[in-house]
């Protein structure tokens, strides 16, 4: 038995026997949130990577207030409204050329479920019902719903308990070539992908990937050449390409979308997290004309049978429009480039850190940086230690990372990287 906690809230990913009472957040402003009692913490993770404008951004808060006065919610079945229509047009404008159709849902996981169902039904409707499996990559993380768990890295442990319950899909090795690899250096990764496709293409509807940055599976970064090669393989083997840009979308890798680094249009692309600047849960699954047209037909099977209650929620769409306007008007890509320079200088160029015996690797891409430790035990206690320095860090396994809000100042980012380095060097 554990001591009863003061709240009945069951926390995510928490070990109930050892968990401590969660600190209570009472507010936030900019890159910091405030706890009951007055302690403020600089958020190095921008709340699981979604609060890209930081907390209490006046324009986003005002947009929600204004929309709440007009229309908080209405079903999207058989109806539409201006924020949903306008956001869909904006998403078509900013995403890679050819993604012309937008299906809304309420979270990244559900956005991925929509993508997977869409891919399987696409092949059904084209008379290829045998193509009903998905090809995913080792180190992948696509969410915690059943369909998503089945395409997460099966060995990493988080979902292995459910192996008997989940559908089985083939996996290809995680890409190993770094972001700046030459094309030749990516050829082994692509050969590994080809090898799985040669064996399984007749049963594969789509390849799923987090382009350039496999996030929760260990912040594994790879090359735009890998994305181009995957696109070519998909075309060769009649397999759809699905980009899960839930984490990478809206600037995290240094361009608006990771796909932009490679000039690749996936057949289906999923957005969430930064879509609403983190202010409300929402997701969008975009599809090309080719995918969309397969759903135009006479049979009952042509309807796409999915419709989350809160899809296209007006508050979420309205705040997403405001988030995008701020992103563009305030040159967030320029801000991200500046953050990237600080991350490189403070982490990547630090030879003492690189030589530390507990450090296995240091990687930086866009507004993302990770210090990979050799072992999870190397990071035991880091979150509590960082909190004492006024920084909210939450490592994933043996990866100590930051994905800050884009409004984080250079001084605050240096504070975050000092604390990340300090864990290894200054103790
Ligand atoms: C790449 C990726 N896909 C999907 C998800 C799932 O999103 P959600 O937590 O909104 O369901 C996440 C969440 O971290 C993610 O990083």
From TrEMBL:
GO terms for biological process: biotin biosynthetic process. Substrate binds at residues 48, 141, 273, 307, 394. Its cofactor is pyridoxal 5'-phosphate. It comes from the Bacteria. The record marks 13 as: Participates in the substrate recognition with KAPA and in a stacking interaction with the adenine ring of SAM. It catalyses: (8S)-8-amino-7-oxononanoate + S-adenosyl-L-methionine = S-adenosyl-4-methylsulfanyl-2-oxobutanoate + (7R,8S)-7,8-diammoniononanoate. Keywords: Aminotransferase, Biotin biosynthesis, Cytoplasm, Pyridoxal phosphate, S-adenosyl-L-methionine, Transferase. CDD domains: OAT_like. InterPro entries: Aminotrans_3, Aminotrans_3_PPA_site, BioA, PyrdxlP-dep_Trfase, PyrdxlP-dep_Trfase_major, PyrdxlP-dep_Trfase_small. Transmembrane segments: none annotated. Pathway: Cofactor biosynthesis; biotin biosynthesis; 7,8-diaminononanoate from 8-amino-7-oxononanoate (SAM route): step 1/1. Pyridoxal 5'-phosphate binds at residues 108-109, 244, 308-309. Belongs to the class-III pyridoxal-phosphate-dependent aminotransferase family. BioA subfamily. PANTHER family: ADENOSYLMETHIONINE-8-AMINO-7-OXONONANOATE AMINOTRANSFERASE (PTHR42684). This is Adenosylmethionine-8-amino-7-oxononanoate aminotransferase. It comes from Halomonas ventosae. The lineage of its organism: Bacteria, Pseudomonadati, Pseudomonadota, Gammaproteobacteria, Oceanospirillales. The gene is bioA.
């Amino acid at each position: 038995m554990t001591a009863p906690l003061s709240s009945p809230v069951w926390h995510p990913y928490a070990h109930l026997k050892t968990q401590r009472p969660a600190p209570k957040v009472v507010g936030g402003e900019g890159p910091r949130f405030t706890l009951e009692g007055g302690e403020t913490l600089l958020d190095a993770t921008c709340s699981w990577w979604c609060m890209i404008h930081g907390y209490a951004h006046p324009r986003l808060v005002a947009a929600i207030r204004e929309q709440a006065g007009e229309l908080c919610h209405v079903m999207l079945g058989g109806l539409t409204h201006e924020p949903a229509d306008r956001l869909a047009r904006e998403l078509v404008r900013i995403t890679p050329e050819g993604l012309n159709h937008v299906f809304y849902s309420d979270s990244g996981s559900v956005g991925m479920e929509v993508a997977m169902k869409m891919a399987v039904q696409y092949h059904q409707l084209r008379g290829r019902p045998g193509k009903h499996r998905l090809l995913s990559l080792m180190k992948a993380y696509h969410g915690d719903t059943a369909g998503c768990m089945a395409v997460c890295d099966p060995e990493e442990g988080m979902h292995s308990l459910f192996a008997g319950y989940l559908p089985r899909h083939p996996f290809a090795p995680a890409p190993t070539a770094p972001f700046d690899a030459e094309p030749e250096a990516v050829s082994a990764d692509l050969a590994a992908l080809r090898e799985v496709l040669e064996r399984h293409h007749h049963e594969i509807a789509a390849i799923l990937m987090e382009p350039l940055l496999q996030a929760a599976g260990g912040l594994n970064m790879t090359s735009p050449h890998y994305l181009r090669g995957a696109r070519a393989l998909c075309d060769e083997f009649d397999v759809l390409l699905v980009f899960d840009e839930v984490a990478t979308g809206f600037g995290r890798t240094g361009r608006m979308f990771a796909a932009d680094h490679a000039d690749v249009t996936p057949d289906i692309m999923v957005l969430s997290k930064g879509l609403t600047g983190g202010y409300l849960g929402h997701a969008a699954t975009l599809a090309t004309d080719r995918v969309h047209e397969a759903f135009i037909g006479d049979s009952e099977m042509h309807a796409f049978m999915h419709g989350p209650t809160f899809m296209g929620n007006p508050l979420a769409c309205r705040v997403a429009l405001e988030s995008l306007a701020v992103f563009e008007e305030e040159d967030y890509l320029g801000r991200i480039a500046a953050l990237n320079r600080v991350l490189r200088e403070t982490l990547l160029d630090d030879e003492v850190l690189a030589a530390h015996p507990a450090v296995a690797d240091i990687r930086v891409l866009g507004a993302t940086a990770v210090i990979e430790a050799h072992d999870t035990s190397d990071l035991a206690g880091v979150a509590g230690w960082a909190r004492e320095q006024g920084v909210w860090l939450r490592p994933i396994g043996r990866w100590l990372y930051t994905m800050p809000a884009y409004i984080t100042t250079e001084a605050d980012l240096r504070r975050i990287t000092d604390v990340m380095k300090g864990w290894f060097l200054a103790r």
